[in-house]
Prior knowledge:
Layout: E1 18-21, H1 30-44, H2 51-54, H3 67-75, H4 81-96, H5 105-114, E2 118-122, H6 127-137, E3 145-147, H7 160-169, E4 176-180, H8 183-191, E5 195-198, E6 214-215, H9 219-226
Parallel strand pairs: 1-2, 1-4, 2-3, 4-5, 5-6
Helix pairs in contact: 1-4
Amino acid sequence: MLAGKRLIGDCMGMTPLAVLFDFDGVIVDTEWAIYQAWLRTFQRQGHDLPLALYCRCIGSDFDTWSPKLHLEELTGRRFDWKTMDEDRQVEIRAELEGYGAMRGIREALAEAQRRGLALAVVSSSSHSWVDGWLDKLGLTDHFQEIVCRGDAPRIKPAPDLYLEAARKLGLAAEECLVIEDSLNGLISAQAAGMRAWIVPNRVTSALDFSPAEKVFSDFEEMYLALFPD
């Protein structure tokens, strides 16, 4: 697939010094399993959860839009969210068992590392979730920094996490290229003054990413744009 291609970083005439990757939906296709678990929660209560509506919280948290509040509004009921959250996490982890990294991610990380680019993960998820997955997949050593919820005052769509990653890497925002899959992530990166490329997944593929510098159909296409020769 990607093997045998000659590569060099161009990025529209300006080679970045760092590539900052979102985690969920970018490095691992976790978003689909999470959405499916939420959809089942709604269906058990006799309601649908359209993907276009659910996408409002992708890449951020429920302060942006809350499926919990939405379900309570639809049903007129209050729920034991602590128990339901724990049960949903069991469903999600069971569905994700055996998942690997997104197709093309390993090649992109290896080539970027070979070329001396700094690499970081920047996620609104917790360290326990992100670090655990990176260790499981053997990807931790590719990254100089892993910045997650709690490492900066606010999560995406605020710019804080991306700015913290740049600070830790000792780079200016304009020297960083962000790889994202969500509107909240795109807003966060651009608010931080960083260029953003989007690789949508099956949860976010219907969203309008026209404000992004580039949008790719998959990571192979992104890889060849980042390293075109």
